[in-house]
Amino acid sequence: VVSAAKHAESVTLFDEENPAFLDAFIHSEGNPEIPTGMGVLYAKSRPVYETEVRNQKETIGQKRGPADLHKLLYSGETWQIE
Predict the structure, then answer these.
(1) What is the dihedral of CA 69, 71, 76, 82, to 10 degrees?
(2) Would 80 be classed as within a structural domain?
(3) Tens of pLDDT along 49-64?
(4) 0.85 cut: is pTM over it?
(5) Phi-psi category of residue 40: left, alpha or beta, with phi > 0 → left and psi -120 to 50 → alpha
(6) Domain range for residue 7?
(7) Does the residue 54 lie in any domain?
(8) Domain count of the chain?
């Protein structure tokens, strides 16, 4: 075990948002001189799905007005089963 405090100049800080670090870990697998990466190796910041869906509903609601299920069901091509 190497002390990061004593060897700060040779320690690389891991950045889970940088794919180059992930690539380096993949290509160093099996090298006894490089520690094995554990935990989150890569994380890309992306919008939360629920937030995006909510924003999309609000945007469409502002453009088209409030939803009307009756109007939706009786619009366009419809047929009756007799």
Answers:
(1) 80
(2) no
(3) 999 999 999 999 999 8
(4) no
(5) beta
(6) 1-75
(7) yes
(8) 1
Average pLDDT over residues 71-77: 84
40-58: b (≥16 Cβ within 10 Å) or e: eeeeeeeeeeeeeeeeeee
Compute CA distances 25 → 13, 38, 52, 75, whole Å.
Answer: 13, 10, 33, 57
8 A C-beta contact, residue 41 and residue 35 = no
User: The tokens of 40 are what?
Assistant: 């989150």
Would you say 9 and 16 are in contact if contact means Cβ atoms under 8 Å apart?
Answer: no
Residue 82 domain flag? no
Give the pLDDT score at 56.
Answer: 95
Q: Is 81 among the domain residues?
A: no
- Tens of pLDDT along 7-58? 778 777 778 888 888 888 788 878 887 777 777 778 888 999 999 999 999 9
Diameter over CA atoms, the chain? 85
